[in-house]
Amino acid sequence: MNEFETKYLSSGLPFVTLKLAQTLDGNIATCTGDSKWITSKTSRVRGHQLRAEADAILVGRGTVMADDPELSVRHVDGCSPTKIVLDTQLKIGLNARIFGGAPLIIATTKEVCRKRIKERKNKGAQVWQLPILNGQINLKAVLQKAAQMGLRHILIEGGSRVAASALCLGLVDRIAAFIAPKILGAGIPAIGSLDIASITDAIALENVKVEAIGNDFLFTARVKKSP
Question: Which of 4, 25, 122, 146 is the most exposed place for a label (fewest CB within 10 A)?
């Protein structure tokens, strides 16, 4: 039995890898939102390998609207994973590239406009209407539904609010952070506020590995779970 099945059987949730691509000082974009490209092409190829190993890739609406990504596997052999996008108000445009390629799931709220739901279903997307937690779609509910569909390994790619939510709820199992030797100062942080006031409350990592990828570094670690 692999670790994905073990996680599902013990918790009913998928195994979650949080992928980050950031500067040395922890930013994923400049203060104007420019992010292409922080890391090297070699790092991006490795990032696509992570996609190929996942059953689904999950991002927030902000990532889709800022970058208009395909969220597909390129540069390496492998199938593109199912795409899950968090979009509380279904604001992602119908012409976004996210609607092409692998299956698309849009997680939204129970109060969203029915017309918008129908339009996105007509474009081939599944629409999940789920409860809200702290003003955002309940990420744990998203993962539970994903696991029920057989999606046992989820790769979270962005943005900072999604990363923070997943960490705050204790949903992340592994971190894969690509770190470029660049400094931006003020910018968009890789992880949003976790409301941590004391160092003793910091999220601890273990089984840490660091690998040089060209001029970048890949930092991988497991999130230490509370006993």
Answer: 122
Nearest residue to 73 (alpha-carbon basis) of 191, 157, 171: 157
Residue 14 in contact with residue 8, Cβ under 8 Å? yes
DSSP H helices, 68-129, are 114-122
- Per DSSP, helices labelled H in the chain are 3-11, 41-53, 61-67, 114-122, 139-148, 160-168
156 dihedral zone (left: phi>0; alpha: psi -120 to 50; beta): beta
CA separation, residue 21 to residues 27, 114, 158, 176, 222 (Å): 8, 36, 10, 9, 17
Provide CATH code, domain 42-195: 3.40.430.10
Q: 138 with 145: CB under 8 angstroms? A: no
Taken as a whole, the chain contains a residue count of 227
This prediction has a pTM of 0.94
pLDDT > 70? residue 166 = yes
Q: How confident is the model at residue 37 (pLDDT cuts 50, 70, 90)?
A: confident
pLDDT at residue 18 in the model: 98
Q: Measured between alpha carbons, how far is 18 from 174 in angstroms, rounded to an integer?
A: 6
| CA count, 13 A, side-chain hemisphere, 188 | 20
